[in-house]
Amino acid sequence: MREPDFDFFKNWPVDKQMEWITKNYSKDLYWVIRPIVKTHENADDVLQNTLIKVYRNLPNFRYNSKLFSWLYRIAVNESFNFLKKVNKHKNLEMINEEVISLLADDPYFNGDEIMIRLEKAIIKLPKRQQEIFRLKYFNELTFDQLADILGVSTGSLKASYHLAVKKIKKELNLSS
Amino acid sequence: MNEMKNNPNIEELLSKLKESYQIPEDYFNQLENKAAFKPETRKSFFPRFYLKWGIAASFILFLGLGFYFQNKKTESLNTENELGPKYTNQQINLKNKDFLEDIDEESIEDYIVENGLIEEFYDENFDN
Fold first, then answer.
1. Which residue of B has its CA nearest to A25?
2. pLDDT below 50 — which residues of chain A?
3. Which tens digit of pLDDT belongs to each residue from B91-104?
4. 8 Å CB contact between A134 and A36
């Protein structure tokens, strides 16, 4: 994942910084958001909200972490806030069901029944394992890159990932 | 898909999952041109942000002033209760003086007769 040279980046005007971020990270942020909010329409809304929040907070960014780690956190928070806002007074389980049902109606999703089952299995995982799964598969990151973004050791990420795979296989009755 | 069902592989399924999510053609190129990302639109979010905080601050100020004046009024009533009415003795004397200057002796006599104070008046003012 491309990171800007902070020595130059931090001296740029905010508009130029934003331009760089939009050009280089839009796709990655989209793939952070889409697996959480599921439909393209929602992902588009949340991506715009995320970039606006980034624009507002860029002057406060302290440059002591990777830029993408910071953007990633904003995108994840915005995605969950969006789901909570849309599904007021519903618990997490109800929100998850709602989100999956939206997916089936999304014109930009062409997965079959197995894909829906797989989504349901992923959504049942603990939050941390879901996060690792999403980043690994939708953002196509290596464990080292994941460790950088999430700030945890590669070993613990691998352990969480294998545990998650096991659970998904069990949920889908897949052979090992 | 049948093949996948017979010989399922989680990695393969997961890679297919991403393919199931589609994105409109040219979405990322158009994204930069969307209104939300244009500097002039982004700037227009700031007045809205300040407006929100401005309204909140005005409300707090309004409440604060309300409490301040309410307290001041209660304080003044308390002082009045403790120390008596607002008029000083000098002001009261002046008022009485004005009143006495306005009335003549006849009206005093009328008042005394009307109110049955005649005997009391004579007792006080004349020797029997």
1. B28
2. none
3. 666 666 666 666 66
4. yes
Mutate to test the interface with A, among B11, B17, B30 (most CBs of A within 10 A): B17
**Residue of chain A nearest B18, judged by CA positions:** A138
| Residue B80 burial (C-beta neighbours within 10 Å; 0-12, 13-18, 19+) | exposed
User: Residue B40: exposed, middle, or buried by beta-carbon count in 10 A (0-12, 13-18, 19+)?
Assistant: exposed
* Set of chain B residues whose Cβ sits within 8 Å of the Cβ of A168: 10
Q: Does pLDDT of B116 surpass 80? A: no
State residue B14's pLDDT score.
81
Matching residue, tokens 């907070």: A57
Exposed, middle or buried by CB within 10 Å (0-12, 13-18, 19+), for A134?
buried
What pTM value is reported for the model?
0.66
Cα dist from A175 to A50, A115, A166, B6, B11, whole Å: 40, 17, 10, 10, 12
In the Cβ-directed half-sphere of A136, how many Cα atoms lie within 13 Å?
A: 22
Query: Alpha-carbon distance A15 to B39, whole Å?
Result: 7
Cross-chain Cβ contact B15/A138 below 8 Å: no
